[in-house]
Amino acid sequence: MTATRPTDDRLPEDRAPGVGALDDRALDDDGAALRALHDRLVAQARAHGLLDVAYRVVDSPVGPLLVAAGESGVLRVAFEVQDHDAALADLAARVSPRVLHGGDRLDPVLRELDEYFAGRRRTFDVPVDLRLARGYRRDVAAALAAVPYGSTASYAQVAGATGRPAAVRAVGTACALNPVPLLLPCHRVVRSDGTAGRYAGGDAAKRLLLDLERQGLAPAPAQA
Q1: Which candidate in 132, 170, 186, 190 is catalytic?
Q2: Rounded alpha-carbon distances, angstroms, from residue 21 to 14, 17, 18, 40, 210
Q3: Residue ranges per domain, the chain?
C-alpha cells in the first residue's frame, strides 16, 4: 500500500497567531538584505571601473523620471512617456553596456531636482555629459542653458542665439531630442505666438513646469 501524505486543509487564517507577521518581517528583512547586497555590488563595480552608467527612476510632479549619469556628469533624464526601457537601451548602445541601477553617483542631481520642484532652486549646478547630443544640437543646448528661470524664448529666438536664425525647425528637433530636459530647460522654448507648443515629456508636463517657475518668481505674500 502506498502511504498517503497528510493534508492540511486549514485556511491561511487558521495559522498560529503571529505567523503571518513573522513571514512579513522575514520578507522585509530579505528585501533589505538584497538592497544592501545590490548597493555593495554597485560600489564594487564603480571601484573597479566596471560601472560606466548608473541610473535611478524617481517620482516627480511630472511623473516618474529616469535619471542616468556617467563619471563626467548626467547623461540622460527621461520622462515615462519616452519609454524608460528604450532610454536604457539607447544608453547601453551609445555609451556603454555597463549600466547599473542605484549607487550614490546620482545623489547630487536628485537632490537638485527635488529642490527645483520644491521651488527652492532656479539653476542646476551638477555637471552634464552631452555626448548624446552632437553637432548643431550642442549649439542649441548652450542656448537653452541661457534661457533664465521663469522666462521663455521662441524657437526663432533660440535659432538666432545659435547664429542660425533660419534653423527654427532644427531647434525644434534639438529640443525634442534633448537628452537632459529640466537640466537644459527646453520646456522654456515656446512658439512665436506665446503658446507652449509640444514637449517630449508631454504637453501637460510642459505647462506644469512653466507654471511652477512662474509661481517661483511670484513675490512672497506680506506677513501680517
Answers
A1: 186
A2: 14, 9, 5, 29, 47
A3: 38-132, 133-217
Please answer whether residues 16 and 77 qualify as being in contact, where contact means their C-beta atoms are separated by less than 8 angstroms: no
186 catalytic? Reply is yes
User: Rounded CA gap, 124 and 121, in Å?
Assistant: 7
CA proximity to 200, closest of 66, 73, 68: 66
User: What is the Cα–Cα distance from 57 to 65, expressed in whole angstroms?
Assistant: 5
Q: What angle do CA 73, 79, 82 make, to 5 degrees?
A: 110
Each residue's pLDDT tens digit, 105-151: 999 999 999 999 999 999 999 999 999 999 999 999 999 999 999 99
CATH architecture of 133-217: Orthogonal Bundle (1.10)
pLDDT above 50 for 3:
no
Q: What is the pLDDT of residues 30-46, one digit of tens each?
A: 555 534 434 444 454 44
Separation in Å, CA 46 to CA 42, 50, 71, 109: 6, 6, 10, 18
Could you say which architecture CATH assigns to the domain 38-132? 2-Layer Sandwich (3.30)
Q: Provide CB contacts within 8 A for 181, sequence distance 6+.
A: 77, 79, 187, 200, 201
Tell me the pLDDT tens digit for each residue of 159-191.
999 999 999 999 999 999 999 999 999 999 999
What does the alpha-carbon distance between residue 213 and residue 122 come to, in Å, rounded to a whole number? 8
**Phi, psi (degrees; rounded to nearest 5) at 189:** -95, 120
Q: What nine digits make up the cell of 96?
A: 556603454
